[in-house]
Amino acid sequence: MGYRVGIDIGGTFTDFALLKGSQVVLHKNLSTPADRSVGVMTGLGKLAELEGMPLSGFLGKCDAIVHGTTVADNTLIEMNGALTGLITTEGFRDEIEYRRGFKEDIWDVRLAPPRQITPRRRRLTVPERMLANGSVYKPLDEAAVRECCRKLRKQNVQSVAVSLLFSFVNPAHEQRVAEIVAEEMPGVHISLSHQVLPRAPEYDRTSTTVVDAYVAPRVTSYLEKLVTRLKDGGYRNRLMVMQASGGVMTREYIAGSPIRVLASGPAGGVIGSAHVGAAKGYSNLLCVDMGGTSYDMSVVLGGAAPAEAGWNMHHRYLIGVPMVKVETLGAGGGSICHADNGALEVGPASAGSEPGPICYGRGGTRPTITDALLMLGILTADSGFAGGSFSLTRRGVEEAFRAIGEQMGYGAEEAALDCWRVVNANMSQAVRRTTAGKGIDPKDMVMLAYGGNGPVFAAIQAEDLGIDKVLVPRASPAFSALGALAAKPSIDEERSYIAPALGLDRQKLKALWMQLGERAERYFAEAGFAADAIEAKYQLNMRYRGQNWALTFDMQSQQGVRDLSFVSDNIGAVAIEAFNKRHMEEFGHIREGETPEVTGVRLATSVDTPVPVIGKGLDTPALAARPDKTRRANLGGGYQDTPIFRGSRLQAGHEVVGPAIIEETFTTIVVYPGWKARVDDAGDYELTRAAAAR
């Protein structure tokens, strides 16, 4: 029996999900920010120990290791990427700074623009020009390219982004620029826009390429270091890496466009949510993930979490590659609580894992949400934390909240409760903003909560949002790692092609889809997958003339990428019908009698691999559970003796009526007053509001 391991690195904890047959084993250990591969190898060593074998023997039996990484995200958050330069077409030097005139908050006159990855002194231009049809209007001035290299070299640039006009139609000039840069600046990383995002418009392509150049050296360096350590440890297969699109692919494929790993950790949780929801019979989910550093929210509609390519603003930068939509808020267990001029604030700054919250006893001095939960009795210092890897301490916690309370005019316990209220309100408001923007009423959704802290707050948030049911998988503490195991190896790429829908060139369409299909076959073959195992979705991007953004829809789904017989003479009419249907679903109207235009072709390919088996829902009759003990705790209505249940002792059918606290190995599930929790046949939890259950 071979093992499959899913790994997700968070700001505080590194999570592991081990799949052996139908059994899933979870593990968490603290992340190691100085070298995150150390935390990965530490966790793998612990899994090997749990299996009763040395690390080399365990890794030798691993069929796959699937890894979601936050290296790219952390690089953008901390702004510590490579010193990056940009070479672009003459006259387009400042396009990256104009940002299409976009501002996150148009009413905030003091909102500063994002910190520039490529300040003007490192944005250089060269005389050249390609036309939209791919013909050369002005030849490339190679001497100017060499002069650009000289200037960038003097500034110690480590990575170069190249984005020339219409390179996605004819990449010859970009390719020659890359050759010259490699000659003049040996050892620098080079990101080419026709490889990173081969489509219009210019700003989207340039922004995505610049960010790719900025994060690539750190991403590739980390993955290479991890691959080396895994190989030295005894792992013999390819490392699979989670992508922002919700699929996984080999490290070698990721190396061609490292930006595809941006937001890959949260994407794993959404894919896992869709997988669990399908097994339980729930197709519309509000997914909330509260970890140690952030609170991520997303939706699954109709059982799917589609990846959207286009206007994806992430850490204030536009990323045009396909991404599962995840909104992030700086609210996690490590979020720092403080008073500012009489206002209580929580986050977005986080204590992370080093030094961590005060109660970790690792040198932290600023109070966090985890410290507040300890003050409220939701967490305890009497038992092991994070699977028993260490214990919490109350030393210094009460004093920290007393200091906040003195500024606010009350005591330490009241300060801790108000921090709990503030973070709850912040998260609920973030959900409202996200769902309202999508035209979704949260009341129509089932909440699926995961992350180490998600189940602590889920029911009270659900009540605030009008949601009556919450699912908490037993694997919720390491859910993004489990989601990585549920994700399919996939390649999702597109090519630009602009033409009226009734004037499509069949041969051009076939050539573009064939090119994408050949790339997919090659990378899947290198990963050990046969061509006939590939599931393909042939898609078009289309819009009405004058619209800024296109919609993506399927034209054909099939096995394999060789059969293009569906590209028939009437493909334009078929495309218009499919587009109008998609437009009606998205916007509620269509433009009768108007011919839309195609802006690009897209091919989404994937293959099946073994996935965690998720049990169905409630079939066993309800059985009242007995608490193991009581503890003084405040669940929002004042301190009282609260029943405490040990999750390992609860069996299918056991029901816990709130107020109560369920202590699982790596998380805590709070059953608030008016709620009850029941263990389903798979060992997962279903929480319902008492009013909804009657």
Layout of helices and strands, plus pairs?
Layout: E1 3-9, E2 13-20, E3 23-30, H1 36-50, H2 55-60, E4 62-68, H3 71-78, E5 84-89, H4 95-98, E6 123-126, E7 129-130, E8 136-138, H5 142-154, E9 159-163, H6 172-184, E10 189-192, H7 193-196, H8 202-233, E11 239-242, E12 248-250, H9 251-255, H10 264-280, E13 285-290, E14 295-300, E15 307-308, E16 312-314, E17 317-319, E18 323-324, E19 327-329, E20 335-340, E21 343-350, H11 369-376, E22 384-385, E23 390-391, H12 397-408, H13 412-437, E24 446-450, H14 454-465, E25 469-472, H15 479-486, E26 490-500, H16 506-526, E27 535-543, E28 551-559, H17 571-587, E29 597-606, E30 623-624, E31 629-634, E32 639-646, E33 654-657, E34 660-663, E35 668-671, E36 675-679, E37 685-689, H18 690-693
Parallel strand pairs: 1-4, 4-11, 5-6, 5-9, 9-10, 13-24, 24-25, 30-33, 32-34
Antiparallel strand pairs: 1-2, 2-3, 7-8, 11-12, 13-14, 14-19, 15-18, 16-17, 20-21, 22-23, 25-37, 26-29, 27-28, 27-29, 31-32, 33-36, 34-35, 36-37
Helix pairs in contact: 1-8, 3-8, 5-6, 10-15, 11-13, 12-13, 13-14
